[in-house]
Description:
Bound molecules: NADP nicotinamide-adenine-dinucleotide phosphate
Pfam families: adh_short_C2
Protein name: 3-ketoacyl-ACP reductase
Number of strands: 7
Largest sheet: 7 strands, parallel
Keywords: Oxidoreductase
Strand order of the largest sheet: 3-2-1-4-5-6-7
Order of helices and strands: EHEHEHEHEHEHHE
Family: Belongs to the short-chain dehydrogenases/reductases (SDR) family.
Distance between the termini: 52 Å
CATH class: Alpha Beta
CATH topology: Rossmann fold
Shape: globular
Radius of gyration: 18 Å
CATH superfamily: NAD(P)-binding Rossmann-like Domain
Strand content: 5-15%
Domain Ketoreductase: 3-194
Number of helices: 7
Number of domains: 1
Amino acid sequence: MPAVALVTGGNRGIGLGITRQLLEDGFAVSVLATREEPADVLAELRELAGADDRVRYVRGSVADPADHARYVQDAVDAWGRLDVLVNNAGVAPSVRDDILDAGTESFDRVLGINLRGPYFLTQTFARAVLDLRGPLDALPDRPVATIVNVSSISATTVSTNRGDYCISKAGVAMATQLWAARLAPEGIVVYEVRPGVIATDMTAGVTEKYDALFSGGMAPMPRWGKPADVGGAVRMLVRGEAPYSTGEVFHVDGGMHIARL
Ligand SMILES: NC(=O)c1ccc[n+]([C@@H]2O[C@H](COP(=O)([O-])OP(=O)(O)OC[C@H]3O[C@@H](n4cnc5c(N)ncnc54)[C@H](OP(=O)(O)O)[C@@H]3O)[C@@H](O)[C@H]2O)c1
């Protein structure tokens, strides 16, 4: 039975980059997303996996705890094991508003999807892993399971016209620390992958702005990030080769987080 990875938002953008790389590494992958099953994407992924039964798609929202239970149970029923959760699904605010004007509706939507969603999906996933695992005699040398939270450079960098997004990602950084500490004695490790600016649908509307910023030296590496750059980081972290590390933050931002003079 292949190792099993759950990738929220694994149908598009960064999540699709992650799904592809985990399939290449032999994982069975289940995607959670809100859109109708994307037949073309699933066909490509099943071809990449070399087996139809190594890819599943659950339609639901990470903002809805009832969908968490359904999503995790679907993978357990299909494959009988859980190895990796990648909390990737996320949204930008529908409108970028100065925080002097921004309303509560956008705040609640963004935090519900970006923070409350992964926080409680982690709880459901971890409980299911513990049920499948049974009692531990001693902490094993390799992780029992790995959780990766996709946050953002916005966890620590302010944008005063999308405060809700920044707060949601700062919350994801804290959630990573909380879950890393709570799950360490259970053999489950938790990491945060913190992307900079990645070319996806989310950033398609601000291409010119970021083209200019990259040309002006915003990041030491003068190019946009790609979903495959984030996928590569996740692939590395879920291999279980750093079993005595948890709560780590791994930047995928061309060096943007480095303070420079
Ligand atoms: N692009 C960047 O520059 C960048 C930088 C830093 C961090 N990030 C983070 O990286 C993650 C992925 O971003 P992206 O750029 O790939 O965005 P994207 O292209 O807009 O894709 C977002 C993904 O999340 C899914 N999704 C959205 N709402 C959902 C919900 N309620 N329940 C389940 N799935 C949902 C979408 O699928 P459906 O539409 O089918 O629901 C889609 O797969 C996000 O957490 C984002 O904050 C992005």
